[in-house]
Amino acid sequence: MTEKNIEKTNKKSSHWPKSSQDFHAIEETRAKLAAIVESSGDAIIGKTLDGIITSWNSGAERVYGYTSKEILGRSISVLAPQDQPDEALQILKKIKRGDRIDNHETVRLRKDGKQIDVSLTISPIMDATGKIIGASTIARDITEHKKIDKTLKESEHALRERVKELTCLYSLAKLIERPGISLEEILEGIVKLLPPAWLYPEIAAARIILNGHTYSTRNFREVGQRQAANIVINDEQRGVVEVVYLENKPDLDEGPFLREERNLIEAIAREVALIVERKQTEEDKERLQDQLRHADRLATIGQLSAGIAHELNEPIGSILGFAQLIKKYPEISEQVIQDIEKITKASLHAREVVKKLMLFARQMPPKKTRVNLNQVIEEGLYFLESRCEKEGIKVVRSLSSNLPEIIADQAQMTQVLVNIVVNAIQAMPDGGKLTIGTYASDRFISLIVEDTGVGMSEKVVKQIFLPFFTTKDVGQGTGLGLPVVHGIVTSHNGSINVDSKVGRGTKFKIQLPIAESKAEKERA
User: Fold this and answer.
1) 510 with 419: CB under 8 angstroms?
2) 3-class secondary-structure state, position 187
C-alpha cells in the first residue's frame, strides 16, 4: 500500500465510528431526528439539485395531499401552479450557489388542484465533505393566516373609511350649526368636505348644483369616473351632488367607488334638501312676521290717521266756508280775491289729503256695485294717455275680452289705477313703455300694471305700502298713494303683489274676487 493510499484510508476512517457504542449513538440520534421530522406539522421535503423529491414527511402529506409513495421520485415542479412553473427550479439554482432562503411566501398546488399559500425555508444539503448534494424545504401552510390577515386589513381599511365618512357628516353638522351662516356658505363648505371622505382624496373633486347655481372645488372637472345623487325637495329634483376622480381607478362596488360612498353621497344629498327646506321655512316665517308687523303698523297708523282726519275736517270746512263768504263782498280788491283763491286751493288740497287719510283708515264706506274692470281702465286712461304721450311713454293695452264683473266701488277702483299709473309715469322720466292688462282665472280677476322705469330695490319694495313713505322729492308726493291703493284692494278682499328690479322696471299685480252671477246667488 502506497503512502498516498494510506493517507486516504486514514481520512475516510476518521469519519467512521470508533466503536460500536459510537455507532449506536449515531443511529439513535438519526432515529430521533427522523421522528422529529416525521411528527412535524410542517411539510419537510428533501430533493436533489435537479428537483427530484427524495424524502416526504407526514406533514407534507397533510399540506399537499400526496402520499410519499405517490410523490417520491417526481419533480418538485408538480407542486408549482401553472402561472409559475419554473419558480422551484429557479430557487434550486440559488441553493446550488450555497444560498439559503428564509420565509419565502409563495403559492403551491395541492393534489386536489387547490392553490394554497405557503411560507418556505430552503437550505442546502451537504455530504460529509461539504459538497451540496440537494435541498431541504420546510413548507408551512399559511392560507388561513393569509385569510385572517386579509380580513384584518379589510376591516382596518373599512374602519378608516367609516371614520372618514363620520368625520364628513360630523363636520357637516358643525357647519350647519354656525350662527348666521347663509345657504351659499353651507354649500361651499360641503363641497370642501366631500373629497377627504372618499377612497382616493388626493384625486377627488366635488360639485353641488342647486337651483341653477354651482358650487365646486377648484380642481373640479367633468370626467368619466363620477358618482352623483339627486337633490329632491318636495318631490321635485332641484339639483345634484357629484364626486369625480380626476384619474382612472380600478373598479370596486360602483365603478371605482365603494358601496359605502354611495350611501354617504345619498345622505349628503338628503341633508342638502333638508337644509334648503329649513332655510325656506325660516324665510317664510320671517316674511310672515314682517307682514304681521306691517299689518300692525298699518292698523296703528290707520287709527291715528282717522283721528287726525276727523280733527282736521271741521277747521278745513270752516276755512273754505269763510273764504267763500269773503269773496261775496263787492268792495274787495283784486289782490284780496287772488289771496282768497290761494286759501281756497290750499284748503281743497288739505281736504283731499284728509279724504285719503280717511280712505286709508277705512272711515269712508265704499259704494260697491257690479263693475267691469276693463271699463274702469279705459275711463281712467282717458285722462292719463295725453300725459303719457307728452312724457314719451307708450301705453300698451292687453285687456281680456268677456272679462267677468267684480263687486267694487268704481271710484276707488279708478283711484287704484290712477295712483299706480301716476307712479309708473314718474318712474320713467326718459320715456318707456307702460303695459296694462287684465285676465280672469277661476275665482279672480287680475289687473297687471307694468312699466320699464327705474325700478326699486328690495328694501324700498318692502316699505312702499307704509303711510308717508316716499322716495320722491319734497312737494312731489305725500307718501299716501300706494298705502291708499293697498287699503282699497284689501277692503275689496283682494291682494296686491309687487315685483321690481332696479334699472328694469316694476310690475304691480292686483287680484280681485269675481262677482257671483245671479244664478249662483239663487243656488246659494
Assistant:
1) no
2) helix
Q: Alpha-carbon distance 457 to 284, whole Å?
A: 20
- Among 9-13, 74-78, 105-109, 335-339, name the one with the lowest average pLDDT: 9-13
Q: Whose grid coordinates read 294717455?
A: 385
Nearest to 446 by CA among 379, 513, 498: 513
Measured between alpha carbons, how far is 375 from 201 in angstroms, rounded to an integer?
A: 69
Helix (H, G, I), strand (E, B) or coil at 452: coil
Element (H, E) at 233: strand 226-233
What is the distance in angstroms between the CA of the first residue and the CA of the last residue of the chain? 150
**In angstroms, rounded to a whole number, what is the distance separating the alpha carbons of residues 133 and 102?**
19
Asked if residues 311 and 358 have their Cβ atoms less than 8 Å apart, the reply is: no
Rounded to two decimals, the pTM is 0.43
Bridge partners, residue 437, by sequence: 398, 448
Task: Determine the 3-state secondary structure of 101 from DSSP.
Answer: strand
Query: In this structure, what C-alpha cell is assigned to residue 327?
Result: 269773496
In angstroms, rounded to a whole number, what is the distance separating the alpha carbons of residues 270 and 260? 15
Distance between CA atoms of residues 178 and 144, nearest Å: 51
Contact 284, 247 (CB under 8 A): no
Number of Cβ within 10 Å of residue 284's Cβ equals 10
